[in-house]
Every structure is written in structure tokens, then in C-alpha cells.
Amino acid sequence: MVRLHHISVVVKDADRAKETFLRLLNGSLVGEHIIDEGKLKLVWIKFDNIIVELLQPLSSDSQIYRSLEEKGEGLHHIGVEVSNIKEEVDRLRKLGMSFTDEEPISEVLDMLIAFVNPKHLHGVLYELVQLKRK
Fold first, then answer.
1. In sequence order, what are the residues at sequence separation of 6 or more whose Cβ sits closer than 8 angstroms to the Cβ of residue 20?
2. Judging by beta carbons within 10 Å of its beta carbon (0-12, 13-18, 19+), is residue 87 exposed, middle or buried?
3. Cβ neighbours of residue 77 under 8 Å, at least 6 residues apart?
4. Domains of the chain
5. Which secondary-structure segment (H or E) carries 47?
6. What is the pTM of this model?
7. Closest by alpha carbon to 5, among 108, 92, 97, 102?
8. Phi, psi of 97 (to 5 degrees)
9. CB of 47 within 8 A of CB of 25?
10. Could you tell me if 114 and 85 are in contact, meaning their C-beta atoms sit under 8 angstroms apart?
11. What is the DSSP string of 68-116?
12. Distance of alpha carbon 76 from alpha carbon 90, whole angstroms
């Protein structure tokens, strides 16, 4: 593990949540993205050396939408930056951990990511993040 990269929060309205985080907590906007074939809006807000990632489902046909419906707004996952995601996935598998997807490593924006099954981490969804260096 290199460092804590981000904390991800599921929200009903990312624009409203963004204004709250920016105004009340004095963060700075890093970026906004629509991903997952238009099903998910991401808003990144930076506070010193950590990012709060706001997740707003844009379609009822998404895991984030189902999470919002079942659990309401709140913490979704914790992202941890690693230097080599393949090595970290292999290391965790040797320790008996599984991942949320059969092929755990996927590419989103300028990152490689993999989600560790939350059953291994006391119910917390844990995302490995490898930044692509430019």
C-alpha cells in the first residue's frame, strides 16, 4: 500500500453534494466525469492530500443505484493507491482474499482499479488504485 487515495461516497445529487463539500469543508474541485457508459457521475474534491469521490448513479441499471436504494447515501468504499496493482492482487489472493469481479483489474479514466470483496475487510469495500504515470 502506498497511501490512502480516496474515500468514496454515494449521493443522490452530486452537484448538491459537491456544493456542500466545497462550501462547508473548504475543498477544491479536481474533476467531474461521466463513466460506465453514462450510468455514473463522479465528482472529485481534494482536501490536502486526500480525495473525496462523490458517486451519483445516472441509471437504475447500475450497482451504485442499487446500493443507494438499499443503503441510502453514505460511504461506499475506500480507495488505496498501490504502485503495482497486479502484484497487489496476486499478494492478496495468496492471503485468501477474493475480488468482486472474476477478472479484478479494470481501467477507469487514468487508473487501473480492483475491488476486494468486503467480506474480507469487516464489511468495507476496498479499492486498489494504480495511477497511470504520464
1. none
2. exposed
3. 8, 115, 124, 125, 126, 127
4. 1-81 (3.10.180.10), 85-134 (no CATH)
5. strand 40-47
6. 0.89
7. 108
8. -85, 150
9. yes
10. yes
11. HHHH-SEEEEEEEE-S-HHHHHHHHHHTT--BSSSS--EEETTEEEEEE
12. 24
> Is the dihedral angle over the CA atoms 16, 52, 112, 127 positive or is it negative?
negative
CA dist., res. 89 & res. 130, Å (int): 11
Residues whose CB falls within 8 Å of the CB of residue 128, separated by 6 or more in sequence, listed in order: 79, 80, 82, 85, 88, 89, 113, 114, 115, 116
Q: At 91, phi and psi to the nearest 5?
A: -65, -45
**Amino acid making up residue 10:** V
Residue-level pLDDT, tens digit, the chain, 134 residues: 679 999 999 999 999 999 999 998 899 999 999 998 999 999 999 998 899 999 999 999 998 999 999 999 999 999 999 999 999 999 999 999 999 988 888 888 889 999 999 999 999 999 999 998 75
Task: For residues 67 and 90, give the distance between their C-alpha atoms in angstroms, rounded to a whole number.
Answer: 28
Are the CB atoms for 102 and 124 separated by under 8 Å?
A: no
